[in-house]
Design brief:
There is one protein chain. By secondary structure, this protein is an alpha/beta fold. The protein has two domains: 41 residues, no CATH class; 363 residues, Alkaline Phosphatase, subunit A (3-Layer(aba) Sandwich), CATH 3.40.720. It contains 13 helices and 17 strands. Strands 1, 4, 5, 6, 7, 8, 11, 12 and 15 form a nine-stranded mixed beta sheet that branches. It has a two-stranded antiparallel sheet with strand order 2-3. Helix 8 packs antiparallel against helix 9 and helix 11 runs parallel beside helix 12.
Length: 484
């Protein structure tokens, strides 16, 4: 870099304050007014919404491994007559891309679901016997049976549905919402991640990484903060023995002063992120223990979520914690429940996985509903793709496995202006292709952003010469038919 280039790029102290003094003053005043409740706005917004939102927060429940839509929501009774029919020719005609796990099979026998289905709710929605609690609340749910994706393996599929891209380095949904909508509280992160670590002893638990809740190219402060399911929810919550709270405050003030000097010298925005995260950690030392203490929850709430809500690490406990986080102003919560990858022993393992989540998610929806919070909270529940109608491995009348299937799968949304009691989309007779109202993952993202007051076309972040979007550069649309 030559001296002339350095001179042209330099900004003197006087130039900086002349150009930015007004903006800094307004930002500081806005922050102070927001803390005092006088501004009428939420504190520290990076953007304003593009239009009036229907919801102001969201919970995304990720069933990592991909549950079988055929065995839970996509009822295909006629398949029982075609048990063991070889679909090899059919697959060739469809141009189906096979995974390495089944591509070498000599035959692809059709495996009908062995589970009973029944109609529930005002519209007669079909639900599997594996989800008795979910069946009770179908009138609260918007069930989308026509989801589809390009990804056929777990890691790229999870990255696509949770970051909008199969490529690493992109920002997660929660990070986008933190960036776009800002915080509604001062004592907890805007975006919190919960891991339901207790799963079926037989489950095939997929590995996941922090990329799924990372900030990517966005400022680091927008990344999700994961609360641990064992031990302290956050490490180092307690002050070091012999170090008082006041002394820790003084130490942090000194550290922040040094960091601020570094920022003044080099202008790296990640230094500001570091300062903010130190401050957040200090405040969380007081807020997190109170959050994690569920001893004050009444008995009828634990009855609503199920007895497992008292046990940390269970899905029911994570669901209860999610409600407590929402009450304290957390904007976005990601709950991960792993073990849904049933390539074999599906009847045993899927039943166990459903038992893990069914009661807890029912409790969450009903709890939000009775508190008047469901109407402005979006809850999404589903996996990263679907499962095949043909069997992977050995097939019997009581046992089978299913491979990955990106062409159609089912998830549901509730609250936040999604139309309750609706079943959207249809698949063909074999739950193989979508025949009505397809919804791509990008469409789901566009619709979620819309409900939160953000136009996915205009909601951008400039990075590497491009206006980055959660929905990317491919076509995406708001699915108006699923909105109330």
């Amino acid at each position: 870099m030559n001296d002339l280039f350095r001179f042209n790029q330099a900004v003197t102290r006087r130039q900086f304050f002349r150009k930015n003094g007004t903006g800094l003053g307004v930002a500081a005043l806005s922050s102070l007014l927001a803390r005092s409740g006088l501004s009428g706005a939420e504190p520290a917004l990076d953007h304003l919404t593009h239009f009036a939102p229907k919801a102001k927060r969201a919970i995304y429940i990720s069933l990592i491994g991909a549950p079988s839509q055929i065995d839970l929501f996509d009822y295909k009774p006629e398949l029982a007559k075609r048990f063991r029919e070889d679909l090899k020719t059919y697959l060739a005609e469809q141009g189906q891309r096979l995974t390495g796990m089944t591509s070498g099979q000599a035959a692809f026998p059709l495996a009908p679901s062995i589970f009973k289905f029944q109609q529930y709710g005002q519209n007669g929605t079909w639900v599997s016997e594996l989800l008795p609690w979910t069946a009770k609340m179908v009138d609260d749910l918007c069930i989308i049976k026509s989801m589809h994706t390009e990804a056929i393996n777990h890691e790229p599929a999870n990255q696509l549905i949770l970051t909008g891209s199969m490529q690493s380095g992109k920002a997660s949904i929660g990070a986008w919402l933190s960036y776009g909508l800002g915080s509604m509280n001062e004592d907890l992160p805007t975006f919190v991640v919960l891991h339901a670590s207790h799963s079926s002893p037989h489950s095939n638990v997929q590995a996941i990484s922090s990329r799924l809740w990372g900030a990517g190219f966005l400022p680091g402060k927008h990344a999700g903060v994961a609360l641990r399911s064992k031990g302290d929810p956050v490490l180092f919550l307690d002050d070091t023995p012999g170090v008082s709270r006041d002394l820790r405050r003084a130490m942090l003030d000194g550290l922040n002063h040094l960091n601020q000097r570094s920022y003044d010298a080099v202008g790296d925005p990640e230094i500001q992120t570091r300062i903010q995260q130190y401050e957040m950690a200090f405040r969380m030392q007081a807020s997190v223990p109170e959050l994690a203490d569920i001893s004050g929850e009444p008995a009828h709430i634990h009855d609503l979520y199920g007895e497992e809500s008292k046990v940390r690490g269970t899905f029911a406990n994570s669901a209860l914690m999610a409600r407590r986080l929402l009450e304290r102003g957390v904007r976005f919560i990601q709950i991960f429940h792993r073990g849904w990858d049933q390539h074999g022993n599906l009847p045993r393992d899927l039943a166990s996985q459903c038992k893990d989540v069914d009661h807890g998610v029912y409790g969450l929806i009903q709890d939000l509903k009775q508190r008047g919070m469901l109407e402005d909270t979006v809850v999404i529940f589903g996996g990263e793709f679907g499962r095949t109608v043909y069997c992977q491995g050995e097939l019997s009348e009581t046992n089978y496995g299913r491979d990955h299937h990106p062409r159609c799968f089912t998830l549901w949304a509730a609250g936040g202006g999604f139309k309750p009691g609706l079943v959207h989309g249809e698949t063909d007779d074999m739950s193989y292709n979508i025949v009505k109202d397809p919804v791509h993952i990008r469409d789901l993202h566009a619709t979620l952003l819309h409900q939160l007051g953000l136009d996915h076309h205009r909601f951008v972040f400039p990075y590497q010469g491009l206006d980055q979007r959660l929905t990317g550069v491919e076509p995406a649309k708001v699915v108006k038919d699923i909105l109330a």
